[in-house]
Amino acid sequence: MIELAERALPVLGFLLAMTIIAELAERCGLFALIADRLGRWSRGSVPVLWAGLVVVALAATIFLSLDTTAVLLTPVVLALAQRMSVDPRLFAYTCVWLANTGSLLLPVSNLTNLLSLSSTNSSTLDFLSRIWPAALTAAVITVGVLAIMFRRTLAVRGVVDDRPVAPANRGLLIGQAMIIIALAVAIVVGAEISLASLIAAALSIVLTAIVDRSLLRRLPLPWRMMLGVGLLLVVVEIARQLVLDAWFARFELPDSLSGSLLLAGLGAGLSNLINNLPAYLTLEPLAQTPALSASLLVGVNAGPLITPWASLATLLWAGRCRAAGVRIGWGDFALRGLLLTALVVPLATASLFLTG
Asked: pLDDT value at position 71?
């Protein structure tokens, strides 16, 4: 259990810190300002607007985690789509799909990445050098599928809305943006992730308290999520010690493309049956090599696109869509997600070997 605590505490600390950072960035108007600028720069061109959204969604996912894209970016871009009289489903699917398929590149992009980093004892640069081909492939395929599926939406012209959205306090917004940028740089150059994120969260709180203390009222802290993740880690660890590790010891996947494809497929399938976090923890004993570890991440990060419970980000995203009045049928979601998963998971996994 001591080893479990050593893995769990940094993950839980990171989850707490990133929730605070992302929430304060949203409260100071960062995401609303970005959406407003995208709308004004596009001048009614849906392809230009959507291209900007793709860049922002990937950046938010990579540097602030997939939950940030699902929870904080989704509502502002849906409001922008409705303001411009554009089918909001393109924007909704862009957010939820890139939140998942775009969460491979950095350890901070997804909790599964942090768990993988702790199990392999590798650095952020090692992680990045190993996973980048799959991350790039997954993002490119996702964007391509979105462009084909929503080609009619991309062919229309939206209503030009020149009403500017000014932040309540530009200095606070700039300060929060600088903290996020500094955190991203620190993580890329190899800083200890949980410590760097907690320091950044503390700086965000101090800055907000100095400039506008009212923004700290009822600041949502992810206590339930942290408790859920902690309990999940304990349950799966007990199951591994009692049954799973001994059972998986009978199997040894080959450190090859075939073994990687099998593990990635298992990860995607189990994620859609239960959830991607317990799916990763369950299958982790099979990821005995760096290639297999990366392939498992492809499956559990880019694969949970079919069922609404496959990732917490999707459930949170669905709630934001309902609040915005955007109806997404789960049958439609599953069929579209099945097609994307069937393309992304094997091709992103194969890319790990084509470049290595």
From this structure: 87
At residue 273's C-alpha, the angle toward residues 268 and 275, to 5°, is 75
Rounded CA gap, 192 and 199, in Å?
Answer: 11
C-beta of residue 229 within 8 angstroms of C-beta of residue 15: yes
Burial class, 268, CB count within 10 angstroms (exposed 0-12 / middle 13-18 / buried 19+): buried
* Geometric angle at alpha carbon 131, from 268 and 91, rounded to 5°: 60
At 294-343, the pLDDT tens digits run 999 999 999 999 999 999 899 889 998 998 899 999 999 999 999 999 99
Range(s) of the domain holding residue 214: 2-354
Give 72's DSSP letter. I
- pLDDT tens digits, residue range 101-118? 999 999 999 999 998 988
Distance of CA 356 to the CA centre of its chain: 25
Q: How big is the chain, counted in residues? A: 356
Q: Name the domain count of the chain.
A: 1
